[in-house]
Amino acid sequence: MTFDGRLRFVVLGALCVLFFVLNAATFNALGVVLPYMVEDLGWTWAIAGVGFTLLGVACGLSGLMPAILIRRFGVSRTMLAGGALALAGFGCMAVTTTAIVYFAGTILLGIAFTVCGQVPAVSVISHSFSKHSTAMGIYFTSGSLGSVAGPLIAYSTQEFMGNWRIYWVGAAIATVLLSVFTAMVTANRWNNRDASSDAARAAAQTGWSLRNAIRTPQYFIVVGAYSSFLLINTTVHGFAVQHMADLEISMGAAASVMSIIALISAGGSIVAGVAGERIKPMNMVLVSLGSTLIGVIALAFGANFAVLALASVGLGIGFGFSYVSIAVLLLDLFGKRPNLELYSTMSLISTSAAIGPALGGYVRDQTGSFSFVFLACALVALIFFTTLLFMKRPKEPNEDKNTADSAIDTPNVHQALLQSERHQRRPIAEL
Questions:
Q1: Which CATH number belongs to the domain containing residue 71 in this structure?
Q2: Are 31 and 103 contained in the same domain?
Q3: Are 179 and 252 in the same domain?
Q4: CB 115, CB 78: distance < 8 Å
Q5: What is the rounded CA–CA span in Å between residue 390 and residue 370?
Q6: pLDDT tens digits, 114-135
Q7: Are residues 257 and 113 in the same domain?
Q8: pTM over 0.90
Q9: 3-state SS of the chain?
Q10: Cβ neighbours of 288 (radius 10 Å)
């Protein structure tokens, strides 16, 4: 999973473009295409909503799958598997005539999103870039831009083609081609490392073990903070437009607010990546969670332009910073060795955030307002913000340190370092 030299930038580019398409063609575009599907197929919105829920649940519950596939088959074959799942999922969406086929499509797309998405990408980036925060910022910015472009592409396709099935066919072709390209650039034959890189990669296998890391309360506090981000994100995207309409904000203005949030989020991701090289990861997470907290409270009472502007900036910065800051914080606390499994497990546990829209809809039916829903989300964020504020850094067990010391002294690492030294001392004539 370590790529050196110019190849690492090619790999990063491939991962970014693939993540752009995944974000554009799944969560963000589905909400635009669904009205056309509901009208054409004569469905109820209950059926449409179940499919959206299945997409999110499948994405979360498959969180451990990328780690298992990568450890066993490598990154390249994992990307091919994800592309095959995406092809099957988009194919179901394109030919769907019944709810069962639609549900199967959303489930397959949720799994494909996990297999090809941020879990393997974060692992590859953390091992291949010394300035992994900047690289992660670029990666998550590409996803945010996909979130902006996806609804526009879906709407344009419907306007010009007049057939929603064409959109799913195009999404299938784009995803498969990009997953194959990503598999090609991450194939083993491309991954030529020098001796010093092998030594660094071997050293990266030392430090925290998965078992010891996952036993710490700090890990679950970070997971809780990430889940609170997702809770607010899914709830806002599910209900914010209708909430603003309830407050007598026009639909056009409400849609514009959501677009502004997405644009600020895209910029926030790249800023977070650059700032992460200079600011402590914990402070980054606190800024992100604090901004999200302010934004969702403002949205709850967003009856005028000034309050909606505050909500847009707060939520945009919070969402943009969240993915980068959490990923870098996990690396900072526990190191590279268990990162793939820790991130996968976090994605699995954070599926609990999918309950937000379900409970939110029920509260809206009972109270007639979404304000209470957003305030409840704010309370959850405040709890984890306070907990993180007073959280102490976990202490690595002595047994792990001894393991790390012995691992660094292994013959393989010494041999790699020796080869690197000999290469550097080689006479100019030999070169």
A1: 1.20.1250.20
A2: yes
A3: no
A4: yes
A5: 31
A6: 999 888 888 888 778 877 788 8
A7: no
A8: no
A9: CCCCHHHHHHHHHHHHHHHHHHHHHCHHHHHHHHHHHHHHHCCCHHHHHHHHHHHHHHHHHCCCHHHHHHHHHCHHHHHHHHHHHHHHHHHHHHHCCCHHHHHHHHHHHHHHHHHHCHHHHHHHHHHHCCCHHHHHHHHHHHHHHHHHHHHHHHHHHHHHHCCHHHHHHHHHHHHHHHHHHHHHHCCHHHCCCCHHHHHHHHHCCCCCCHHHHHCCHHHHHHHHHHHHHHHHHHHHHHHHHHHHHHCCCCHHHHHHHHHHHHHHHHHHHHHHHHHCCCCCHHHHHHHHHHHHHHHHHHHHCCCCHHHHHHHHHHHHHHHHHHHHHHHHHHHHHHCCCCHHHHHHHHHHHHHHHHHHHHHHHHHHHHHCCCHHHHHHHHHHHHHHHHHHHCCCCCCCCHHHHHHHHHHHCCHHHHHHHHHHHHHHHCCCCCC
A10: 26
142, 270 Cβ separation under 8 angstroms: no
Would you say 259 and 308 are in contact if contact means Cβ atoms under 8 Å apart? Answer: no
Write out the two tokens for 403. Answer: 């393991």
CB atoms within 10 A of CB 241: 18
Question: In this structure, are residues 128 and 4 in contact, taking their beta carbons and an 8 Å threshold?
Answer: yes
State the Cα–Cα distance between residues 50 and 358, nearest whole angstrom.
10
Tokens found for residue 242: 């209708």
Task: Please tell me the distance from the alpha carbon of residue 324 to that of residue 405, in angstroms, as a whole number.
Answer: 30
Q: What is the pLDDT of residues 343-393, one digit of tens each?
A: 888 878 887 777 776 677 778 778 888 889 899 999 999 999 999 999 999
Domain assignment present for residue 258? The answer is: yes
Q: Is residue 150 part of a domain?
A: yes
| Nearest CA among 128, 164, 430 for reference residue 120 | 128
Model confidence at 86: pLDDT above 90: yes
Task: Report d(CA 423, CA 431) in Å as an integer.
Answer: 9
Q: What angle do CA 50, 120, 15 make, to 5 degrees?
A: 95
pLDDT value of position 1: 59
Burial per residue of 139-171, b for 16 or more beta-carbon CB atoms within 10 angstroms, e otherwise: bbbbbbbbbbbbbebbeebbeeeeebbebbbbb
Question: Residue 418 has what pLDDT?
Answer: 42
Q: Residue 280 is encoded by which pair of tokens?
A: 């402590």
The answer to the question of residue 386 being in a domain is yes
